[in-house]
Amino acid sequence: MFEELKARLGKLLKIDESKILKKILSGISLQNKIIYLNTTKQLYEQGEDSLGRSLETIGGGYSPYTIEIKNRKGQPTDRVTLKDSGDFYQSFDVINESSYIEIIAIYIKNGKDINKEWGGHVIGLQKENLQIIIDEIRVEYIQEVKKVMGIN
Description:
- By secondary structure, this protein is mostly helical.
- The chain has one domain.
- Helices cover 57% and strands 9% of the residues.
- Strand 1 and strand 2 (101-105) form a beta hairpin.
- Helix 2 (17-25) crosses helix 8 (127-149).
- The protein is elongated and about 75 Å long.
- The relative contact order is 0.18.
């Protein structure tokens, strides 16, 4: 009985937390979810930046000409989404470091960086979306530790 406990404690002490975290943060599914939450949920569906501010209040609403174009494309006009061709959304990526991740997106339109032009907080997750990611990482981390420990 004590030998089994001793063996499990030995495994627990050998757990490399940074290695597990790096593995989780490298997951394409997690990275895609982060980008989805930033682009689709926050920008497109809500028209908000990472601080929860309406993009319209930051940079103004759409011009009548833009509304006409967006209507033809079937895109919403009741909020600013920063999606026209989709190029800006396609520029989003997740950089994985050993203990953190960073969302990046570089898109210059008409000589201006869209993120900076719209207040500098377009890229990033709102608190509730960040919590979704934290919860997912927590679940995956526990599963990885259980694997190392030999616990089902």
